[in-house]
Amino acid sequence: MTAPATASTRPKSATAPLVNRRELFCEAVAAGTSAAEAARRAGYSAKGAKQRGHFLMSQAAVRLRVDQLRVRHRAFHKAELDNAAEIMEIAIGDALDAKKPMQVMRAVEFRLKLIGVIQDRRIAHHYNDDRPSPDADVEDMPADPAEWLDGLPAGLDETPSPDEAQVVTKDDLPPVSEDDPEAVSSAPLPPARVIQAVRSGLPPDFIRDLPAGMLDDLCDGMADLAPAQLRKLTAELVT
Q1: Going by C-beta distance under 8 Å and a sequence separation of 6 or more, which residues neighbour residue 33?
Q2: pTM of the shown model
Q3: Quick check: 42 pLDDT over 60?
Q4: Whether the predicted pLDDT of 171 surpasses 80
Q5: Rounded to whole angstroms, how far apart are CA atoms 175 and 37?
Q6: C-alpha distances in angstroms, 106 versus 92, 94, 96, 110, 161?
Q7: Is the dihedral of CA 99, 101, 103, 109 positive or negative?
Q8: Distance CA 90, CA 96 (A)
Q9: How confident is the model over 169-194, as a mean pLDDT?
Q10: Which residue has the higher pLDDT, 50 or 239?
Q11: What percentage of the chain carries pLDDT values higher than 70?
Q12: What is the structure's pLDDT at 24?
C-alpha cells in the first residue's frame, strides 16, 4: 500500500496542472519562443526560467511532443498561407486592373505581414519582441527545488533507504580450536610470553646469547602467532 505524498514533497493535485503546463510549454516552443519564455508562458515561475526550460527540453517525451506540434503547425500555417496568398493575389490583380498602385502596395505589404516576412506588432504569432523580459533579472537564479518534483506523479512512495549493512565483529565468529595450525590468536602474546614460549622449546642459553636488538625483533614478529604456531617455529629453530 503506497503512502500518501506529503505537502512538503509534492501536492496531491499536481498531475493535472503538470500535464497542462507541459503541453503549454511544448506549444510555446513549437511556436518559436525560447525555452525560458515558453516556461513563463506555461505558468512556471520566472525564477530559474532558463533552468526550467533546459530541464524540460532535456526530456525525450517533451522534445517528441514539440516536434509533433511543429509538424502540425507547419501544415496548418501552410494551408492558411496558401489560401491567404490566393486571396491577396486576386486583390492585387483587381487593384492593378483599377490602376490603383497605392492599393496594390498596401495589399502586397499586408500579404507579407500575414506570412511573417514583415514584422507587425499586431500579429503576435509572427512578431518577435527582442526587448528583455521584465523578470529577466531572476531567470538565471536557481530554480525552486519544489518544481523539480513536477516530473513525479503524485502518490508515489518515497525512495526507500537501503538497509544498513550488518557489521560483523569478532564475537560473531565461531570459536577456533587451539590445535588448529591455521588459527589466529584473538589476543597477541606479549613479549614476555613470547620469550617464555620460545624458551621452552630451545636450549637453555639460546635466548640469553641473542643480541638485544634481535630479541626485540623476534618478539615483534612472533606477537601475533598462536601457541601452536610458536611450537612449530621453535621446533624448526632447534632442528
Answers
A1: 41
A2: 0.41
A3: yes
A4: no
A5: 71
A6: 9, 13, 12, 6, 70
A7: positive
A8: 10
A9: 59
A10: 50
A11: 47
A12: 92
Contact 94, 100 (CB under 8 A): no
CA distance 87 to 73: 21
The mean pLDDT of 74-103, rounded to a whole number, is: 83
Q: If DSSP states are collapsed to H, E and C, what string results for the chain?
A: CCCCCCCCCCCCCCHHHHHHHHHHHHHHHHCCCCHHHHHHHHCCCCCCHHHHHHHHHCCHHHHHHHHHHHHHHHHHHHHHHHHHHHHHHHHHHHHHHCCCHHHHHHHHHHHHHHCCCCCCCCCCCCCCCCCCCCCHHHCCCCCCHHHHHCCCCCCCCCCCCCCCCCCCCHHHCCCCCCCCCCCCCCCCCCHHHHHHHHHCCCCCCCCCCCCHHHHHHHHHHHCCCCHHHHHHHHHHHHC
All three cell numbers of 96, joined, read 492593378
Cell of 1: 500500500
Region of residue 85 (left: phi > 0; alpha: psi -120 to 50; beta: else) = alpha
